[in-house]
Amino acid sequence: MSASPTFSPAKINLFLAITGRRADGFHDLVSVVAPLEFGDTLWVEPKPEAGHPKPEGRFTLECDDPALPTDASNLVLRAARAFAGASGWRGGAHFRLEKRIPPGAGLGGGSSNAVAVLRALNQIAGGPFDAAQLAGLAAGLGSDCPLFLHAGPVVLRGRGEQVAPLPAAAARLRGRRVLLFKPGIGVSTPWAYARMAAGAPRHYLPAAGAEARLAAWLDGGARAESLLFNNMEEVVFAKFLALPVLLDALRGEFDLAARMSGSGSACFALLQEATPVPAVIARIREFWGPAAFVTETKIS
Ligand code: C5P
Description:
Layout: E1 4-21, E2 27-47, E3 59-63, H1 75-87, E4 92-98, H2 109-124, H3 131-141, E5 154-157, E6 162-165, H4 167-173, E7 177-182, H5 189-198, H6 207-220, E8 229-230, H7 233-239, H8 242-254, E9 257-260, E10 267-270, H9 277-288, E11 293-298
Parallel strand pairs: 1-8, 3-4
Antiparallel strand pairs: 1-2, 2-4, 2-5, 5-6, 7-10, 7-11, 9-10
Helix pairs in contact: 1-2, 2-3, 8-9
The structure holds cytidine-5'-monophosphate (C5P).
Residues 26-27, 29, 142-144, 159-160, 189-190, 193 line the site of cytidine-5'-monophosphate.
């Protein structure tokens, strides 16, 4: 059987309020997340008669980025095994991942890949799972996974597994041009959450405040720029000083609305019609060096 491509988008958190720590060690949050037109491509070649009794032997992965582990730790293989285990599907697949989303970025790359696998295998296997069952499987793979089962911007609650669409506000967000940029260094998500917990409750925005802020934006019809918020920035910026220094420069010089995405280290700026993009990119490279990742994309 021939391989078919599945697009696996990156995401940005336009609004991210960590509201407090839960008894299970995770954090509750309220977040507006938007998928981007930028992302990875996952090629899935089905092997219906893979023959191996255990899911471990039926799925293989190759990736064009040699820095990425292609062993059992990769979310692509973890998702495939979770799917096979839960569905009882006896087939297998070879995955080829064209990696464009940088890891350690807060762009949801691994989570998006996992959901691309779940979608593709569910189709190949004849649709054993409905949307709610896929969402349950996705939540088990990571807090950021369920959002990728939806098209367009969504609101996340809980630890990220409660996903609600944003129909009216989506019109204000969709199609917005975004510049994404990331320094050579990445941020570990568990580390960033641990820093939030260590400073508790100083860094949290209580849920009532977060909901009020979001509701005001939704009801007020304000532009996407005034939605931007991320209360993880403080703990990340305290260690990675190059992030706030650049964001302040971009705000001051180009009047850009710019924030960190998720737990970082990727940041984004909402571009305006008149934004001199080459000059902005030049400034990013001046502050973060020529190896910094930069790409222009759109909210999808
Ligand atoms: O769910 P995921 O595997 O992406 O989470 C990675 C880590 O990030 C968790 O082990 C936890 O330390 C932290 N986390 C959290 N609260 C969330 C999401 C993640 O504390 N809502």
